[in-house]
Amino acid sequence: MRSSLAPGVWFFRAFSRDSWFRGFILLLTFLIYTCYHMSRKPISVVKSRLHQNCSELIKPINDTHSLNDTTWCSWAPFDKDDYKELLGAVDNAFLVAYAIGMFISGMFGERLPLRYYLSAGMLLSGLFTSLFGLGYFWNIHMLWYFVLIQICNGLVQTTGWPSVVTCVGNWFGKGKRGLIMGVWNSHTSVGNILGSLIAGVWVNQHWGLSFIVPGIITAAVGVLTFLFLIEHPEDVDCTPPQHHGGPDEDQDNPQDPGNGPYSNRESGLETAARCSKEAYEEPAAISFLGALRIPGVVEFSLCLLFAKLVSYTFLYWLPLYISNVAHFSAKEAGDLSTLFDVGGIIGGIVAGLISDRTDGRATTCCIMLILAAPMMFLYNYIGQNGITSSIVMLIVCGALVNGPYALITTAVSADLARLWGLCWPGSSPPRAGTTSSTCSSLPTSWPACSSAGWCTKRSWPGSHP
User: Residues 193-206: pLDDT tens digits?
Assistant: First the structure.
């Protein structure tokens, strides 16, 4: 007597071949962009180590600094009084290069094989992230070295976002995209959290490893990308997403012998093959100015400008702010800053769910950003009154800021790409990567300047010197 089919096998059979491939691509692209953000985060954790209050530390016996030197434990050239401006210059080097590169990376991603483009970008990102950390072991104290590394890293990091959005757009079509993309877009916050936790392990001992370890992980995932990334469903004989919405279209002609009970499977295969080979049209690669012609791109870009302004300021300066105001250690400040990204995960999912239920992407973004403004003031006044208030305010601010951020850069970008075909009938719609790159590149230059200015010009209570 045979046993019944194993429960695990029932689970595998519950999903179609297309569903398994789609799930795999969603997971792989999630991992890819998690690594991109993981490699950006260590600099914010290490800042409080590059310049710290040395009066509470015991000077090593073999140290050559004078007895009155209060910056002996800091890392030159960030041991000077203008260390905030110098750290801001390092951030600006990355963000300005990222802004410039984003203008053109979407167009390159449209015209180059995504697998090669992403793999090369991840390998180079891992290399430059590791080179920043190697400055510790090579005992480099020249500002130009760290600025140059950040410029190169900013340029190669632009390979990530347009490419993963395009790849996901190739595999997923219409439907409840806001919720799916809200969950998927949590890779940004997950990457920030992992970057903070990994950097925090070594920040108080050998801070160079806070960069080298994420760099190695990013390069390793780049190799996995080269080995396993599938750009189009047709490459593995899966059905394109635009043909998934019509389960009844094969039943329109019941007299057709192809719809008989003995030929349903054959008819389905023939239909899928015909759709893949004949009806599928490669999305057009449009210019930057062409993307600007799509209604809503400029408006959503301006909306994203303010969300990115806050998000990137918190990304690069929150651990240092917590360390100076709450007097936490570098590791404790880095760990606490991850709560902003925890809120970002919640906010992205909630924003996607609400926009799907209401069909109001713009309204959802508007309301969440309006609520974010007073919450930022509240965090400034009561966020450091206690550990409980700090945790609550960080989660709430992260949700309200990163919710619209996630919605615009994913579901809204895909919607704008489809809108091209409605406004200009007869033309092929561009890939989502172009509109997402355009929406991301327009507002990035302001956070590049403001993220440094917000902290370099601010006097924190209890800060030093």
Answer: 999 999 989 988 88
